[in-house]
Amino acid sequence: MAEHHLSNRNNTTSPTIVNEHRFRWRVVDIAVASVIGVASALIYWLVALLSAAPFPILEGIVPGLGGLFNGFWLFAGPLALIIVRKPGAGVYAEVVAAILESLLGSQWVPVETFMIGLLQGVMAELAFLVFAYRKWNLATTVLSGVSSAIGCWLYSFVTHLQAINITGSYGIIYVITTVISGATLAGCLVWYLYVAIAKTGALDHFESGRLVRMSKSSK
Amino acid sequence: MNQNDSLGLPAALEFKSWGYKHASRPDFAVSGLNLKIDAGQRVLLLGASGIGKSTILQGAAGILGAAWDETVDVVDHDATVEDADGGQTQGRILIDGHSVRQAQGQVGLVLQDPDAQAIFQRVGDNVAFGPENMDVPREQIWQRVRESMEAVGLSDIQLHRSTTHLSGGQMQRLALAGALAMRPGILLLDEPTANLDPSGLEQIAGAVQQVLDQQGSTMVLVEHRAQAWMDMIDRVVVLGCDQGKTDEHDRKTVVVADGSPDQVFIDSHIDFAELGIWVPERYVQRAKNHTGVGQNRCVSQLGESVEGAPILSTRDLAVGRDGASIATGIDLDFYSGRITALVGDNGAGKSTLAMTLAGLLEPVSGYVEASEVLVESGAEQARSSHPFEWNSRQLASRISYVFQNPEHQFVRGSVLEEVMVAPLRTGMDQKAAEERAQRLLERFKLSQYSSANPYTLSGGEKRRLTVASALAAAPRVLILDEPTFGQDRVTWNRMVQLIAGLQADGVCVIIVTHDRELVRALDARVVELIPQDSSGTWERQESAVVPDASEAYSNGSLKEAVQDSCEKETRISVQAMAERVEDPRPASHSAYIASINPAFRLIGSFVLALPLFSSLDWLSALTALFIEIVLLMFAGFTPWRIVRSAWPLFVGAPGSALAVLLYGKEGGVQLWHWGLITVSERSALLACATALRILAIGIPAIVVMLGIDATDLADSFSQVLHLPDRFVYGGLAGLRLFSVLRDDWASLTASRRSRGLGDDNKVKTFFPQAFALLVLSIRRSTTLAEAMEARGFGSSEPRSHARPSTVKHRDYVFLLICLVVPLVSLGVAWLRGTFAFFGN
After folding, report:
1. Min CA distance, B456 vs chain A (Å)?
2. If exposure means fewest CB atoms within 10 Å of the residue's CB, which of B5, B157, B643, B708 is most exposed?
3. Min Cα separation B83/chain A (Å)
4. How does pLDDT run across B272-315, given as a tens digit for each residue?
5. Are β-strands B80-82 and B88-95 bridged in parallel, bridged antiparallel, or unpaired?
6. Would the pTM count as exceeding 0.95?
7. CATH superfamily of domain region B3-283
């Protein structure tokens, strides 16, 4: 049986040289994407503690201004995508984070974190999908942050704020602040975060990391 | 299963002109290696740091690159193949004549860091993981798990126990069991004891010895300190490199010496000190081992320091985390210019005591008292004599703590800036700070890296950098946590010399360590932390320990031991890490819900929630809420438990309701108007409906999900929903890191306080700290991937499942109930005419 087992493996893997590993997930891709989700969940939780006080104050100044905080909860998707560069990385990282939050069971409502995580992940993915996962730069990352923000807004609107007029003062301001927050925190900041992480050498297993390191060393 | 397979017959390992180049490096780590290891041989592999010993083991274990691309045999030995990691392979590695990929499962690899090799939460699942990946049938998996656990002496540990409560030695034995369960013909050990205390080392060496005796497996060991392993080694291979004549990048990895231990260790042509190797004691007479920095230290110590008053003392101190003390009644004195070693087993509480001394943890009771000299020294005037009450800047210029993991400490983008942090913080101007930093870098042999990113240094360099940064603030007390962990003899010697130099400068040095050589070389005073039920292991042969000493200290308090010589030893009795017995955690407070398949519980809460979003009206929400609470009470929940489990809702729901009340759709009588705010009858009603609906959706979701074990959920995702195992179990392994990262966050916070950065406002410190956490998490996940691949994870071959996840009738009934609740509620609203699609 051992022999048979070995030859079996041989047959299934030998016929072709698979060179198309652009979209194939390696174990390290999976591990890094999921741990970005986990670390993000921890950071989200810390941000929630920090923002507990300022959020209502901002909302009190101008209705909808609290949306500026939303970007903090959006960065896992774009960050996982720009680092791992595989289709689905954004969705995967967000879903892992959501499952973790659900199982911890204290901070947010499980079903909701799951749905919002999924939606934000899918939206973050869109920005790279339209360029067939070939464009990985500051612009696409910002776009990813923006689309993820739209997902975030859409979700809270449908679930918690259905009774608010989109064209009303609160509706408009909330959309704008959320998108601004997404573009800066989950887009721009994520790009520079990725470059800074790459410079530490932690991403040497990834093409994304080697690109940064090579351009740095050639200077 | 035939006989051969179940025994894991010893296999032969052969490298044929093999080489590997990591993607980010300019040169091949290993090149043109030719080495043949016969089946059943036990080989000790030696060589200087950077010669590529770990790369060789990784290659043999098949975890280099994304190796599934290695599909064709490379016939031309000079050809190189690039993998998905961007690395390049040349030549071949053969295991019993087969390529590494074909021989997967034949090779078991045990790595240095015990924590990094625990993949899942429960002990048994970690051992079962390898066989699962090899598609071993379920019944046989648990058989193998029991056998492997027994082989490493862990058979008394419950399989469902959490890995978090195991000692370092137990963790590493667990990693070994995980490798053995794959029934490997070859066992590869990459510095398996570098992070362990002496008792952990004995445990591992003993377990391996037993396995080799029983199974006769081939073994390749990489270890700088091979002392404990010498009895089982029958061949020593020393690697070196042969610099190419024409091109300096064209270096070849060559075997410098090869033979029995007796032949190799007496070979006078080999400079073991230069190779970073400790020659095992039995050969020491013939080869000089270490330089003995601490020799004659005794005299100078007595001369300089004992006359002065202590610089730091503890009085009736109790230490512990989260208010629970692990050791009480500690009275210790620390003197300038003296070195004290805090020793004891992994997990005994050495770091807890050290961090309390460093003013990073609050004493549970009693005091850490800084002497007047210490209080007066350093930046700013410190009002208190208790280090914990100092602010971060005051602390940094007086007592500095160097963490075990250097990456917990880095805060700047270059080595020079890193060293300048503390001087700048404690009020030095830019120019003076830079000068001091340059001097320190020179002394620590780091000048050539001054503009490099601290994270990119090698392990030994990182360690030196953290010590240099700590010293930059000129603290009078320096505390080092495991300064020699996992270092080879060259970097080790350098560290020992540095520490000895500090002593000469009059710094009070406290080291947390289990490195006997270090304690001996520095001739440090020893303070040992001993679990209550065991006797100490640190009696030095040359020191005259009072025979009834353990009795005298057994009452849980501590007394100063003999004061009169440098061979002073003090013991602190700490709480033993109890042999824990853990009951399996129930999957829910309700026996009914606990019996439902986890995936169905998740889907059920979706089914229940989604339809409710269609209408925003008070009646459907209230009806649903009412039915849910009745059902949950039938399932065994008290109303109080429901409220307690779902508390976040009672914070969140009013917030959303308020937004709707103030800015929601208007209608009916206008109740209040101010600026943009309009409260009307309709908005009030909608606000009410919003709050109720959030409760109706949230309460069952939380209560139904609460208690689901992550592993059970993953099993269910894989076996019931048929999601791909690679992602499901990759994600599960990631989840385990949550508690690790939470501890990382605590260490990051403490290290910033110790470095003088702790006084900044929270928002300002948050971002750099979050960055450090992300870097750590990525490092941890790359090691995790390595550990998982070493267990054969990641191929698209079918794998088996050790834990069954089944679906029964009651699961479908549960789903049906979840569907009926919202339908009935919406139906009621429809009939009464309150149904309002999306609140319109």
Report:
1. 6
2. B643
3. 9
4. 887 778 888 778 765 444 444 443 343 334 334 444 789 999 99
5. antiparallel
6. no
7. P-loop containing nucleotide triphosphate hydrolases (3.40.50.300)
